[in-house]
Design goal:
By secondary structure, the chain is of the alpha/beta class. It folds into three domains: 2-30 and 414-434; 43-91 and 288-395, no CATH class; 97-211, Serine Threonine Protein Phosphatase 5, Tetratricopeptide repeat (Alpha Horseshoe), CATH 1.25.40. It contains 13 helices and 15 strands. It has a six-stranded mixed beta sheet, with helices on both faces. Strands 5-4-7-8 form a four-stranded antiparallel beta sheet. A three-stranded mixed beta sheet has the order 6-3-9, with no helix packed on it. Helix 1 packs across helix 13, helix 5 runs parallel beside helix 7 (151-170) and helix 8 (174-187) crosses helix 9 (201-210).
Length: 448
């Protein structure tokens, strides 16, 4: 009798608990909630984003499994060609946050070669100015190699090349001037031209001619690389490689391979008329590649789950000295473009779409990026989010035989406890009816 009373109480408790958990989140049975679509959203921040093409410098960030990287980088260049047509500036994949070099070594170059060269330039002593400014560029670049790229060094090496190019042009060294202007734009795209060096309109025209994009020449560059990365010709973003660049003007050009987590590589190419030049890149990781990978992985996770701007992205915009960060992200199931504008402090546009074919890039995002509203256009959830080609396609767990499978232990799975609760409720209910059947009155019939 005691046993049956205990079973009745268990059955009643299970029924009540099961009923409550169908109405309210249950800490035992319910699925553990992530910090997902509402985690720490700042709605006021979203409202500040202005749906228009922003001026200033831009940088592209690629988030994808390695096997998609090159295709997504090429897709990003194709998508942003309209910005390029508006002369938008895309910065190199680097930051100038290194510590300043020792003061005495910096002053030895800045106070002597650079300042003397500028003084001689203003005095129209161009041959002597060229000697001093050439020494300044070599000295500042040597400090960058030795101590890393800091903002003061970056600024000084740019100005040195600008004054050097202006002096070479005024000394009738036109091709040498173009090469210097290209190096200047490589070190700091869109840096303001110093008035003293560019008072003459001819100098400004030559500078613009030197850094113009491919399209008017008859030569080409064949680019080989063991690792896919972004390519910059004379400081101008020209897509992702390996690739061939056609319609290049003859002369000396500055070609750069760059990608976050790898050391940028810059080569000076002499491109012959109506012929080809070849550049081979063998990139090596930077010392902080693990930190960069952690930043990119965390950014990928945040964008999958949350609508707000991650603080790490805003911090990176400051370090990279850019006004706009445009993040291209893809998995086996979806493609997303997230455009962060540092001046508004929020998203200018976020658009996400499901891939029509798993493993392909959802090209709808390309056409939707420049539509001003809505700012947040994340589309519908993917119908096949468990499809995968690599572990990086899975929000959690591993990719096994093309399907994302959780690595969470069975006892920590929400569905296990839910099923257990339902089972207990069913057992209790069955036991209750069994008891009732045993206690029912027996009808006896007798015949006379």
């Amino acid at each position: 009798m005691v046993f049956w009373n205990i079973m009745k109480r268990i059955q009643l408790s299970a029924i009540i608990l099961s009923f409550v958990c169908t109405l309210l989140p249950c800490p035992v049975f319910a699925q553990k909630s992530s910090d997902g679509e509402g985690g720490d959203d700042d709605s006021s921040q979203q409202q500040k984003a202005k749906p228009k093409v922003s001026p200033g410098t831009h940088m592209v960030i690629i988030l994808s499994p390695e096997e998609y990287w090159k295709d997504l980088a090429k897709f990003s260049y194709k998508t942003l060609k309209s910005l390029i047509g508006q002369e938008a500036v895309f910065a190199l994949q680097l930051t100038d946050d290194a510590a300043d070099p020792p003061v005495d070594e910096y002053k030895a170059i800045n106070g002597k070669a650079y300042k003397k060269g500028v003084k001689l330039f203003k005095e129209q002593e161009y041959p002597d100015a060229i000697k001093q400014l050439s020494a300044a560029t070599k000295g500042f670049e040597a400090l960058i190699i030795k101590y890393g790229l800091s903002y003061p060094l970056r600024r000084r090496v740019v100005l040195s090349y600008m004054y050097l190019g202006a002096a070479q042009m005024l000394d009738a060294q036109t091709e040498e001037a173009k090469a210097s202007f290209r190096f200047a734009n490589y070190w700091f795209p869109n840096y303001p031209l110093p008035k003293a060096a560019f008072e003459d309109e001819t100098t400004r025209n030559l500078f613009n001619q030197a850094i113009e994009r491919p399209g008017r020449g008859s030569s080409s560059i064949i680019i080989n690389s063991s690792v896919p990365g972004h390519l910059y010709l004379n400081g101008m973003w020209v897509g992702a490689g390996p690739k061939n660049i056609d319609k290049i003007s003859a002369g000396t050009h500055v070609l750069t391979w760059a990608r976050l987590g790898y050391k940028p590589i810059t080569v000076k190419l002499i491109v012959p008329e109506n012929d080809k030049a070849v550049a081979d890149f063998a990139p090596v990781p930077t010392a902080d590649k693990k930190d960069i990978d952690t930043f990119l992985s965390g950014l990928d996770t945040h964008l999958r789950q949350k609508p707000n701007v991650p603080s790490t992205l805003a911090d990176f915009a400051v370090k990279a000295r850019v006004d706009n960060l445009i993040v291209f992200r893809t998995t086996a199931n979806e493609t997303e473009i997230s455009w962060y504008n540092s001046k508004s402090g929020g998203w200018q546009k976020r658009v996400r779409r499901q891939a029509a074919v798993p493993g392909s890039i959802a090209t709808q995002v390309e056409t939707l990026l420049f539509e001003p509203s809505p700012v947040m256009d994340l589309g519908s959830d993917s119908a096949d989010k468990n499809k995968c080609f690599a572990d990086s396609d899975c929000v959690a767990g591993k990719c096994v035989a093309g399907t994302c499978q959780s690595t969470t232990p069975l006892l920590k799975q929400w569905w296990f406890w839910t099923a257990l609760g339902v089972g207990v409720a069913a057992l209790g209910t069955g036991t209750y009816f069994l008891i009732q059947m045993q206690n029912r009155p027996i009808l006896e019939m007798s015949t006379p």
